[in-house]
Design a protein that fits this description.
By secondary structure, the chain is α+β, with helices and mostly antiparallel strands. Helix content is 18%, strand content 34%.
Length: 227
């Protein structure tokens, strides 16, 4: 399996479906492939939704994108990962990611909002059983957290691989949704004496903290310092 991300700058957009067209604020929806990939690639945590014993379940977990496929990993004892391998043709899921870019403070409580970028993926998750694909998927998961880390750590051994399950989800039924800009106050509220505007939120990295048992001679890798 190839880990390199393809050039999507001229790729066709995803096709809208009944499940990917929002019922509200349709103008905020996007099916641009490059935008979807960027939102996914810059998020650390996804939420994986599925039905278990007739009730909805949503789990936060790590994920990674490789081309037009997402990978999620967990313990082989995890119910959704077991179900993906036992169900035919797989486990129906809904996977989401969200970035919060700003808090939108309006003059009225009703018009308070957030600026955000989100992606929703519908599909059927499959258990990854091919050993090479599984190893490549786990490398991609490590590199998704910190690019370059998979080559600077011990790969999973046979026992660890046996204890780890990986499911895949193809990017077939996908949409992005975004909100940008300032508050949408009603005209009659524009003269009210309340501060209004956007409080931006940014993501940052602190100074790396070495483990207590790290050899002081081991320097912080360049790929970490670059963050």
């Amino acid at each position: 399996m190839e880990n390199a991300m393809p050039d999507t700058s001229t790729a066709a957009p995803y096709q809208a479906t009944d499940r990917t067209v929002p019922t509200r604020s349709r103008e905020r929806a996007s099916y641009d492939r490059e935008l979807v990939h960027t939102i996914l690639d810059t998020a650390y945590v996804c939420h994986l939704g599925f039905v278990r014993d007739g009730a909805p379940v949503v789990l936060p977990t790590l994920f990674a994108r490789v081309g037009e496929r997402l990978y999620v990993h967990g313990s082989t004892g995890s119910r959704p990962l077991r179900a993906a391998g036992q169900a035919d043709p797989g486990l129906p899921v809904c996977l989401t990611v969200t970035h919060v870019d700003g808090l939108v403070l309006a003059r009225s409580a009703f018009h308070h909002s957030i600026n955000y970028r989100s992606v929703v993926v519908h599909g059927v998750a499959q258990d990854v059983t091919d050993p090479e694909e599984k190893r490549s998927a786990l490398d991609a998961l490590v590199d998704h957290v910190v690019p370059g880390r998979s080559l600077d750590s011990r790969p999973a051994n046979a026992k660890e691989l046996a204890a780890t399950a990986v499911i895949s989800l193809d990017l077939d039924e996908v949409s992005a949704k975004l909100r940008t800009g300032g508050p949408n106050d009603d005209a009659e509220d524009l003269t009210l004496p309340y501060w209004t505007g956007v409080l931006p939120l940014t993501r940052g990295y602190g100074t790396p903290v070495p483990a207590d048992d790290l050899d002081p001679a081991v320097a912080v890798p360049g790929y970490i310092s670059a963050l």
